[in-house]
Design goal:
- This protein is α/β, with parallel strands linked by helices.
- It is built from 17 helices and 13 strands.
- The chain has helices spanning about 20-30, 60-65, 80-90, 105, 110-115, 140-150, 170-190, 200-210, 210-215, 255-265, 280-285, 285-295, 300-310, 320-325, 330-335, 375-380, 385-395; strands spanning about 10-15, 35-40, 70-75, 95, 120-125, 155, 160, 195-200, 235-240, 245-250, 315-320, 335-340, 345-350.
- The chain has a six-stranded parallel β-sheet with strand order 3-2-1-4-5-8, sandwiched between helices.
- The protein is elongated and about 85 Å long.
Length: about 400
């Protein structure tokens, strides 16, 4: 049986992008088969290239978000450079940009302008706070948006709010941009028309705040920060085992509490004790509930505790480190790791979470060096070697 092609084979994307939100969105498109042309500044490129050198000399953010792309290093402030990009956009299916608010419009590269000139084009504007309103021109780094969207207010311990350990606002915007592109391409397939797509980091992350937001807006109290615990479920927390590791367990209902009390804690009487028999009672007596669980788990090795909890049907998990995740047995058993080429050699990366059984494996292309594809792209755009040499001499390309 022949393998189905990747769903975005034949789709060309041009992206004027930086940092995480737009690059992570277009990387999803590249993984699914799209050709992604990444426009970068000649003097250093996407500034995420300089965030760190952890990936064998490359920036870990850049490696994560930019595999499978072609890098065109060109100065958009020079009319000759801007003309090249406009020529590429004219032949593209999708355009994505996340420049500072107003910058794309000044260049004529905003979604509204481009879609008016190219009706079949899907053009995406990603911004921090949206195109209008009092926050439109505020700087919108991930941590700032996490604060504005209230995520920080519900993350952390009672005494200390903390930001998420990953760029949640960037990722939220990226994934809505990705799905927005797919939806717009589907609409184009039936109507022949593309159109603008607008994504705001604030709106994307506020959508992810759904539970605490709806809880508060519709009459509930503002959720409190509870660390790893759950504000309305007990026991639901991390507990230390005899060998110093931590396991998180979650009892979702009273039937599970009975199984935990009888099969793991060895305290069957707790299943009917009015101070513990219901979740409401356990939450009201959270300290005592947690103390009972902690006392028993502290006597068990991690393996024995996990085996007992799994046998009793209690939801549980190791509190893994990042190194633990890189060696996770489930990811290994499902063969989720691949090697991606880069300017410093092969780098390990995980297969994209979207799995299409019976189809071609995601196209995990190389991480590009800055300007690696500049000359080839200019040649394809109709430029002569003499014109390319002139642009290089003038610092318009790299």
């Amino acid at each position: 049986m022949s393998t189905r092609p990747l769903p975005l084979d034949g789709i060309t994307v041009v992206a004027v992008e930086q940092a995480v939100a737009a690059p992570f969105a277009t990387r999803q498109l590249a993984d699914l088969g799209a050709r992604v042309i990444k426009i970068e500044r000649p003097d250093g490129g996407d500034f995420a290239r300089g965030y760190d050198t952890a990936a064998r000399g490359l920036a870990s953010h850049f490696v994560w978000c930019n595999r499978g792309k072609e890098s065109l290093a060109i100065d958009l402030k020079d009319p000759r450079g801007l003309a090249v990009v406009r020529r590429l956009v004219a032949d593209a299916d999708v355009f994505v940009q996340n420049l500072a608010q107003g910058a794309a419009a000044r260049l004529g590269l905003d979604a509204t302008t481009l879609c008016a000139a190219h009706p079949r084009l899907v053009a995406v504007d990603i911004s921090g706070y949206g195109a209008d309103g009092p926050y439109a021109h505020k700087r919108a780094y991930d941590m700032l948006v996490q604060c504005e969207a209230g995520l920080v207010s519900v993350t952390g311990t009672p005494g200390q709010p903390v930001k998420a350990g990953v760029p949640a606002a960037d990722i939220a915007a990226a994934m809505y941009a990705f799905s927005g592109v797919l939806a717009a391409l589907l609409r184009r397939a039936t109507t022949g028309l593309g159109g603008p797509v607008e994504i705001s980091m604030l709106e994307a992350l506020t959508e992810w705040m759904g539970h605490p937001l709806h809880h508060r807006m519709h009459g509930g109290e503002t959720p409190t920060r509870t660390g790893l615990a759950h504000p309305v479920i007990a026991p639901y927390d991390a507990f230390e085992t005899a060998d110093g590791e931590h396991l998180l367990l979650s009892v979702q209902n009273d039937r599970e509490w009975r199984r935990l009390a009888e099969q793991v804690l060895g305290r069957p009487e707790l299943a009917d004790d009015p101070d513990f028999a219901t979740n409401t009672a356990r939450t009201a007596h959270r300290e005592r509930t947690d103390a009972v669980v902690a006392e028993v788990l502290a006597t068990l090795t991690t393996q024995k505790a996990l085996a007992g909890l799994d046998a009793a049907g209690i939801a549980c998990a190791r509190l893994n480190t990042v190194a633990d995740v890189a060696a996770h047995p489930q990811l290994a058993a499902r063969d989720r790791w691949r090697e991606v080429e880069s300017p410093v050699g092969a780098l390990r990366a995980m297969l994209p979470p979207i799995t299409l059984p019976g189809g071609a494996e995601p196209r995990m292309g190389a991480v590009p060096a800055l300007g690696e594809h500049t000359e080839a792209l200019l040649r394809a755009a109709g430029m002569t070697d003499e014109q390319t040499a002139e642009l290089r001499r003038d610092g318009v390309i790299a």
